[in-house]
Design goal:
Chain lengths: 314, 334
């Protein structure tokens, strides 16, 4: 894979995105307004944070299906630590994020120490973490957070939604790490050829452990933003978000077999999906119809790249 | 590595001369299956000791009949996983097929059409999935994740999650008995035995193991891998369709939504029954036993008064423990 093929995929995506924006703004005059676009950015953040971490995980040839459950568990714990245990809210949120990060670390341990395939390991913890969220919450939601907490999910900084800044910073930092650091190169090396990476003296297990921990951390931070945005915690929060994140990553050009992918691609994939979702809902299609669309987009995106790959570079 | 370049003496030649004992062969071929069976027996004894009502006829019927559809679906899933693939859309597929089945039954179509038309639909949908996996080389996890959201989203946007009621009594075959035994139980046993024999003794069955165990070797022996993968997905759709008949006819109503986490339960039944997620090994006897084990665990937790809210956490923990134990066992034997 040369640099040229990277650029090609992302240029292709960018053109598709511009095209989608153009069609959607022509369809509805409510679409291409600053207020609507910023609001879409707000809605995109939780999936975005998870998808950025997922880019690394998938680039190693792995997958993390448990992120939605980690999100649910962290959200529930934030509420329970604060309301039921009387911990001050900032400390409660930090403690909950710590547990979510630990959940990701446990995924990493199961995958690296016990050599359980990532798909099965995170499918099992998907059930476990969601079960824990249900058990801890006892089906009760926690509401009534102090006003300052809502700044994170509903407020603005310098005219831009607070969480969009977080997403932006996360994207830039992740893009630099993946493209320019030893850690990023190791990620690609594991995805291309894990055995060769190990024989080259790269820390395969350590890197994977760190990446799954990061994935848990991203899901946990997304959880706190989610709670702040919707003002409540429920144990079913974030279910299915892993699908949105994986779709964005794969649409962004990251190979599901690993070894290839960029953060920029993921962010473009995210924007494209969010624009389509928003455009469809403005056109009167209900939420469930957009789930269907994501599935179709996912399959078509991979199909297109599979056909390209066979006829082109190889 | 360890055996580099040195002429190694032949390892224990006498094993090829004398056949190992029946018990040892049983352990070698069905080790995981026996462990699962043992777990079921232990669980039954332990829970019955705490609460004798556990072994009442009513509860046994609900454990076996109420979950037979999971075992039937797990047969197809086991075959898919044996070829080294996976299907995460099966829960959504069963939800869609059940809705089609119920709609046909209520609309006055002959009962057998309502039962078997969805089976054909399931085979067609999975045939398409198989083609995308085999000929377009898209990983099955991606195709079926996409199929999952298409089926789930499509189902809810078409039906709005309404319930189908007023089903004709003759349609409800899962509530009927055959020779004094509940139909789902008979179906589960018959299908498992037939599928197990077929997988073990037919050329087609053996070729599925070859496809999953070592695709390159399979190609070299002349097995058409692509056609086998399409076939195995169609079979998976077939078993999902049969599972749907049992699932859709067990209550007086059909809730036209996707049963939550059904795909997870079915995949885990196959994996815990001894099917290696890496492909190439496992049996459908194991997947059926594991499905029974899950049903027993679910029922047992209620009988020993575990709060319903913790049920999924405990099941999740048990699943994880079994996966880890399985992985440790595999590493020791390899």
């Amino acid at each position: 894979m040369t640099l040229r093929s990277f650029i090609r995929h992302e240029t292709f995506l960018a053109i598709l995105l511009v095209l989608a924006l153009f069609v959607l703004s022509w369809q509805s005059d409510r679409f291409f307004t600053v207020a609507n676009l910023l609001n879409q950015g707000r809605l995109m953040t939780e999936t975005g944070l998870i998808a950025i971490a997922m880019t690394f995980v998938i680039a190693t040839g792995g997958i993390d299906l448990s992120v939605g459950s980690i999100l649910g568990l962290t959200a529930i714990l934030t509420g329970v630590f604060w309301k039921n245990l009387g911990v001050p809210l900032p400390a409660a949120a930090v403690a909950a994020i710590a547990v979510g990060t630990f959940a990701g670390y446990v995924n990493g341990l199961i995958i690296t120490r016990f050599r359980v395939p990532a798909l099965i390991a995170t499918l099992a913890t998907l059930a476990l973490y969601r079960g824990l969220a249900e058990g801890v919450s006892q089906a009760r939601s926690v509401r009534g957070y102090p006003d300052w907490f809502y700044v994170l999910g509903q407020g603005e900084v310098l005219g831009v939604p607070t969480q969009l800044w977080i997403l932006l910073i996360a994207a830039v930092v992740a893009a630099v790490i993946l493209a320019y650091t030893r850690w990023g190169r190791t990620t690609y090396a594991i995805g291309s050829n894990e055995v060769a990476a190990r024989f080259s003296g790269l820390s395969v297990e350590g890197t994977k452990l760190a990446l799954y921990t990061m994935s848990g951390f991203a899901a946990a931070v997304a959880a706190v933003i989610f709670v702040s945005r919707v003002s409540t915690t429920r144990s079913d929060m974030g279910s299915g978000i892993e699908l949105d994140a994986i779709t964005a990553v794969v649409l962004g050009g990251t190979s599901i077999f690993g070894g290839r992918g960029t953060v920029l691609g993921t962010v473009l994939g995210l924007c494209l999906i969010q624009a389509l979702k928003n455009g469809l809902s403005l056109a009167g299609v209900k939420g469930d119809g957009t789930i269907m669309l994501i599935g179709i987009v996912l399959i078509l995106a991979v199909l297109a790249s599979a056909i390209f790959e066979r006829s082109g570079t190889r | 590595m360890a055996m580099s370049g040195v002429d190694l003496p032949p390892v224990r030649p006498q094993t090829s001369l004398q056949r190992p004992g029946f018990l040892r062969r049983l352990m070698a071929d069905y080790g995981q299956e026996l462990i699962v069976l043992l777990a079921i027996v232990v669980l039954f004894v332990a829970v019955t000791a705490v609460n004798p009502r556990f072994i009442s006829a009513n509860n046994l019927t609900s454990i076996f009949s109420g979950n037979a559809y999971i075992a039937v679906a797990a047969i197809g899933m086991a075959m898919v996983i044996i070829t080294g693939n996976i299907d995460v859309s099966i829960g959504a597929l069963i939800g869609v097929l059940a809705t089609i089945s119920g709609t046909l039954a209520v609309a006055g179509y002959p009962i057998w059409v309502a039962w078997f038309f969805p089976v054909l639909v399931g085979m067609a949908i999975n045939g398409l999935i198989g083609i995308l996996v085999a000929y377009f080389r898209i990983p099955s996890i991606v195709v079926t994740l996409g199929a999952l959201s298409i089926l789930r989203g499509g189902l809810i946007s078409v039906t709005g999650g309404t319930w189908i009621s007023d089903l004709p009594p003759a349609f409800l075959i899962a509530q009927q008995k055959w020779l004094g035994l509940p139909v789902p139980l008979v179906a589960m046993i018959v299908l498992t035995v037939l599928a197990a024999l077929w997988m073990r003794y037919s050329a087609f069955g053996r070729s599925l193991y070859a496809v999953g165990g070592n695709p390159e070797a399979a190609v070299a022996t002349g097995i058409p891998i692509e056609r086998r993968i399409v076939a195995v997905f169609i079979l998976n759709g077939f078993f999902a369709g049969l599972a749907t008949i049992l699932f859709a006819t067990q209550l007086q109503v059909i809730q036209s939504t996707v049963p939550p986490n059904l795909e997870l339960t079915i995949i885990m039944a196959a994996v815990i029954g001894g099917v290696s997620i890496l492909g190439g090994s496992g049996t459908v006897i194991g997947s059926t036993l594991a499905a029974i084990l899950f049903a027993t665990i679910g029922s047992a937790l209620i009988f020993v008064n575990v709060s319903a809210y913790w049920l999924r956490a405990v099941i999740g923990l048990l699943i994880l423990a079994t996966v880890l134990a399985d992985m440790l066992r595999r590493r020791r034997t390899v």
